[in-house]
Specification:
Blueprint (H helix, E strand, L loop, with lengths): L3 H16 L17 H5 L3 H6 L1 H15 L16 H4 L2 E3 L12 E3 L6 H10 L1 H11 L5 H20 L8 E4 L1 H8 L2 H10 L1 H25 L5 E5 L10 H22 L2 E6 L18 E5 L5 H8 L4 E6 L1 H6 L2 H15 L3 E5 L9 H12 L1
Parallel strand pairs: 3-4, 4-5, 5-6, 6-7, 7-8
Antiparallel strand pairs: 1-2
């Protein structure tokens, strides 16, 4: 029987090789999302969100229950601090919601156009700290607990043989602004005051790159840097606006990640087919295109399969409404058709109401 250290090294090397488009003994499988773990382990969503120590134990227990998976999606429940990445209030189970309901982003206009001037005049970090303290329902004690305990949580996962996929994250400024302002008002801002918005986005990007580089230095075996860019889908903007307000800083972020030696992991929610050719600019074997199931994964393979790793894409609907045979057959077909340079995963989060037998069917397709 292999030791946990041997399993850790085996899994880590398998994922690293796949990212570099090298051949491996089998396709790695890396589940995405954490909301399935309470159901899997019989824990209330409220307890999972409210108790960070418990959430670390729940994720670790759930990983073992999954079986032969190659990396963990996270080391603790980040639901209570998600407002820091979405610039929004959060509705949490046991607080604004029933105990067993999934957490929710409460998108409202919390930023004003005056905040653009504050960021330009005082810098993003100063604005951000004040925003967290005064605008969103973030418990700063919990945030400090996360900062203090996160290294131990990650070590606990690693010590049981699981690398962490996406232990480092960077947020594209489009996500902050389009939620803090609301998407509709942000769309008006880029029409009415494009120069100011662009300047603000440049400032945020530079600040986030600085923080990301430090996080990569502090991380243990960073497989990749997760790029949050849910509002950056090319279908939301005309091509010129997308190039200016999304691609420009996405390329800058990606180049900075590649410089660190970690892989850039694009979490591409919605349909990115119109923008796939842009990603050919990055060096071979340095990026992962992670689809939620909306972008046709076969078109990703056609456009980018010889340049970057593809991760996905068992859709949420299959986990909830499908059968184990359907999930297994779909997963097996992806493994066969995608070939080397493919990580089998869920298309975005495994939903909280997924059938456990369907999740295990996906995993078994990769570990057969």
């Amino acid at each position: 029987m292999k030791t946990t250290k041997e399993l850790y090294d085996e899994r880590l090397n398998r994922v690293k090789k796949v990212i570099k488009l090298e051949k491996t003994d089998r396709t790695p499988v890396v589940p995405f999302g954490i909301c399935i773990f309470p159901k899997l382990t019989g824990v209330k969503m409220f307890d999972f969100v409210a108790d960070l120590d418990l959430s670390n134990r729940v994720i670790l227990k759930g990983m073992k229950m999954f079986g032969d998976v190659d990396a963990a999606p996270a080391s603790f429940s980040f639901a209570s601090t998600m407002g820091t990445t979405s610039f929004s209030n959060m509705k949490l189970p046991g607080r604004e919601l029933p105990d067993n309901m999934l957490w929710q982003v409460d998108e409202r206009q919390l930023m004003t156009t005056d905040d653009y001037d504050t960021i330009i005049n005082k810098g993003f970090e100063a604005f951000r700290d004040d925003y967290f303290a005064s605008k969103i329902n973030l418990d700063l004690d919990v945030l400090n607990e996360v900062i203090t305990k996160c290294p131990q949580y990650m070590k606990n996962i690693n010590d049981e043989g699981y690398p962490l996929y996406g232990a480092v994250q960077i947020v594209h400024p489009i996500d902050y602004l389009s939620v803090g302002r609301t998407l509709s008002k942000f769309m008006m801002d880029i029409r009415k005051m494009p120069e100011k918005v662009e300047e603000v986005m440049d400032i945020i990007t530079d600040a986030n790159i600085k923080a990301m580089k430090q996080a990569v230095k502090n991380a243990v075996d960073p497989l990749g840097v997760f790029i949050a860019m849910g509002r950056g889908c090319p279908d939301f903007y005309n091509p010129k606006l997308w190039e200016r307000f999304v691609w420009k800083n996405l390329k800058k972020i990606t180049d900075a990640i590649i410089e660190t030696g970690a892989a850039a992991s694009f979490h591409a929610d919605s349909n990115w087919e119109r923008g796939l050719d842009y990603f050919k600019e990055f060096p071979k074997g340095t990026c992962v295109f992670e689809t939620d199931g909306t972008t046709d994964i076969y078109k990703i393979k056609e456009k980018l399969g010889d340049r970057m790793c593809i991760k996905g894409d068992v859709q949420a609907s299959k986990f909830v409404l499908g059968t184990p045979d359907e999930v297994y057959d779909y997963s097996s077909r992806l493994i066969k058709d995608m070939g080397p340079g493919f990580i089998l995963s869920s298309g975005c989060d495994i939903p909280a109401n997924a059938k456990i037998e369907n999740v295990k069917a996906m995993i078994s397709a990769a570990s057969k």
